[in-house]
Design goal:
By secondary structure, the chain is α+β, with helices and mostly antiparallel strands. Helix content is about 30%, strand content about 30%. It contains three helices and five strands.
C-alpha cells in the first residue's frame, strides 16, 4: 500500500476511534451508521485547522440521531499527514477535506482547494444542520 492510501486508512481508523468522545452527554450504547468529518486547514508552518465531526447513530431500535464528537489529536494528525503527502505529490495544497465513513468500512475523502469556509470567517457553519434529514432521504431510513 502506498503512503497516501495508508494515510487514508490510518485516518479513518483514528476517526472511528473518536466517535465515543461526544460533545454533549455520553455515547452510551449507540451504534454508528455513518461518520462525517469536515476538516479545514490553512497552510504555513503552524497551520490553523477547524473541524466538524458527527455520527449518524442509533441506540437499539430508537430513532436515528446526529451526534457530534471530538476529533482526537491522532485523527487531526492523520488529516495533516494526508495534506503533506498530497502536497508533495501534486504540488498543491487542499483547504478542506470531507470524509464520509460507512459502517461497513467503505469511506470516501473529497478535497476542495477553495478558501476554507470556517477559517475564512464563517464561524456559524450551518451547512450540516439538516444532515440527518438528508441521510434519511438518501437511505430511505425513517
Amino acid at each position: 500500500m502506498d503512503d497516501l492510501n495508508a494515510a487514508y486508512a490510518d485516518t479513518v481508523r483514528e476517526v472511528a476511534a473518536c466517535v465515543r468522545d461526544v460533545n454533549d452527554g455520553e455515547w452510551g450504547t449507540r451504534d454508528w451508521l455513518r461518520l462525517v468529518v469536515d476538516f479545514e486547514t490553512e497552510g504555513g508552518e503552524s497551520p490553523r485547522t477547524s473541524s466538524i465531526s458527527f455520527a449518524i447513530a442509533r441506540d437499539g431500535d430508537g430513532p436515528l440521531e446526529k451526534v457530534a464528537f471530538r476529533l482526537s489529536p491522532a485523527a487531526k494528525a492523520g488529516f495533516s499527514r494526508i495534506a503533506r503527502i498530497m502536497q508533495a505529490q501534486k504540488g498543491q495544497a487542499w483547504s478542506t477535506s470531507t470524509l464520509v465513513v460507512e459502517r461497513d468500512g467503505r469511506y470516501d475523502f473529497q478535497f476542495a482547494y477553495t478558501p476554507p469556509y470556517r477559517l475564512s470567517g464563517h464561524l456559524n457553519d450551518t451547512r450540516y444542520r439538516d444532515y440527518l434529514e438528508r441521510y434519511k432521504a438518501e437511505t430511505g431510513t425513517p
